[in-house]
Amino acid sequence: MAGPEHTETFDGPSVPTASVVLAGTLEAIGAGAYVVNEQGCVVAVNTRAEQLLGRSADDLIGHDAHDLLHRGPQGQPLPRTQCAMRQPFHAGRTAQADEAYFVCGDGTLLRISWLITPYDVGGRHAGTLVVFHAPDHQEVADPQPEPAAQPLSELHRLALLAETTAQLTSTLDVDEALRRLVGLVVPRLADWVVVDLITERDEVWRSIVVHAGGDTYTYREDLQGPMPPIPEESPMPLSRALRGVASNLAGPQTYQGAPDSGIAVEQRRLFEATGMHSAAIAPIRSTRAVLGALTLGRDRNRPAFTPVDLPLIEDIARRAGLALDNARLYQRQRKVAETMQNHLLPQMPGVAGLELTVRYLPAPDASQVGGDWYDAFPLADESTALAIGDVVGHDLEAAAGMAQVRNMLRAYAWSQHEPPSRIVERLDQAIQHITDVTMATTIFARVEPAEAGQWKLSWTNAGHPPPLLISRDGLARYLTDGHGILLGTQTGTRRPDATALLPPGSTLVLYTDGLIEAPRHTLDEGLDRLRQHAAALAHRPLASFTDQLLRRVRPGNDDDVALLAVRVPES
User: Please, which residues bridge with residue 445 across strands?
Assistant: First the structure.
């Protein structure tokens, strides 16, 4: 929708005049911010938004924000029907999203998180405030405004809360969330910030004590660490906050009397060591529990906190609680998932005359188990079975399917003395009837000694990336024979077998597609990258070879990686 001309009025002042007035108030927001009118055209923008977008205010004001800025993840124009801002914008309600994309003035794509909320621009016209944060952008320290003696205006309060939400909800790392919290509140609201967190074992830990002096932060590690237990009846401010009772003001005099608990002793030490003359203490809550307490403190060159300041600090602490709770839940779920995945994947057997090593890396941003797997086990005829595969999905169903496929493959391989192709054919027939696996890929192989220090490899490939064989001299080639369709297609076609000799000093690498697939890169590019680095690392010991290969080749994508490497010792 085309925007109005540059001279649209707001009960008298033209847009340029209104823009100057509004932009001045938006400067209090540390994140990028702009205001749009009812038609979605930009009427004001702050300096941070100009910096992040690489566009001047003149390039933004008067233009339709959606048409000018909004893009899809590949940089393509974003239809309005697919824009997450569209519905809350027209409904006049507050909304936020963790990931979207704006296009900068130079054509580059900027990944952002955003928050929009209705915004009164005065007169008869309603507006919308858009606050956005770019987590990948290198932050540049902006000069902070001088602390005000009066409480923040409603506009500055709204802007600060919007920025707090945008920054804290765009990370699932507890330490990073705390670091961002510090940057939001000091020195803007206080000179000191103290965060006490309650651990999962109901212990209190003083996680952060930070002082802001100009543009530098001083972390007082000597004041951090474990705290005494929370007293059940203490009326003292921090004790009440840690019980979730209420927010309170405090000062050195608050803790000068006889201490009623160990926490009171620590609070007296805190005030003496920091020189704070005034503090505001608020509970950090989630929807489920009290997570800790936020303390903001001021030096004597600033006015003392008053009860008027508490609602804002409570709002900030509440947003911090939601962000910290989400981060804790994510980390807990991820730890459980990784532990489960590690228990599902087997240990490697010892094979006389061969070196075997495996690696499994979960997706960097996933909190669930996946379908990638590997296996190696001895067979009844004294050969060794090798397998690697990938069940479609990244959830518990994929992990359960992976375990079923692996166990069935083991059973068939042990009981049926047949070529690898026939074993996989049996597996393909079985998974269609006794598992919920829809599609999967696998390589099933067997290795056995051959003459002259060599080993014979026999394999079949069901839709999986091809094995890579590297000689001790760094010659690398993919074993593309024996390739067939993936499991679960129900075509009933016969599968091919292939054989190759593994010379002394050679290394065989089996891997899943997470090692070679990357956004905006072809599969051939990923295969070439893997071959190049594997050849360069051929002289490394096997453990070092696999670690370095993963470090160099694995792209920054969202997929799991399983890798199984086999080396034939030099004769």
Answer: 386, 459
Cβ atoms of 541 and 475 within 8 Å: the answer is no
pLDDT band at 4 (very low <50, low <70, confident <90, very high): very low
Beta-carbon neighbour count of residue 105 at 10 Å?
A: 13
Over residues 223-238, mean pLDDT = 94
CB contact set of 37 (below 8 Å; sequence gap of 6+):
4, 8, 43, 121, 125, 127
User: For residue 499, what are the contacts with CB-CB under 8 A and spacing of at least 6?
Assistant: 456, 457, 458, 459
Q: Are 267 and 166 spatial neighbours (Cβ–Cβ below 8 Å)?
A: no
Tokens found for residue 155: 């506009």
In the DSSP assignment, the letter for residue 401 is H
Q: Pick the most confident of 261-275, 300-314, 428-442.
A: 261-275
Please state whether beta strands 483-484 and 455-462 pair in parallel, antiparallel, or not at all (unpaired). parallel
Contact 64, 1 (CB under 8 A): yes
For residue 214, give both structure tokens: 């100009």
How many C-beta atoms lie closer than 10 Å to residue 82's C-beta? 9
Question: Rounded to a whole number, what is the distance in angstroms from the first to the last CA of the chain?
Answer: 74
Measured CA angle at 317 (ends 315, 320), to 5 deg: 110
Asked whether the beta carbons of 35 and 128 are under 8 A apart, the reply is: yes
Mean pLDDT on 514-541: 92
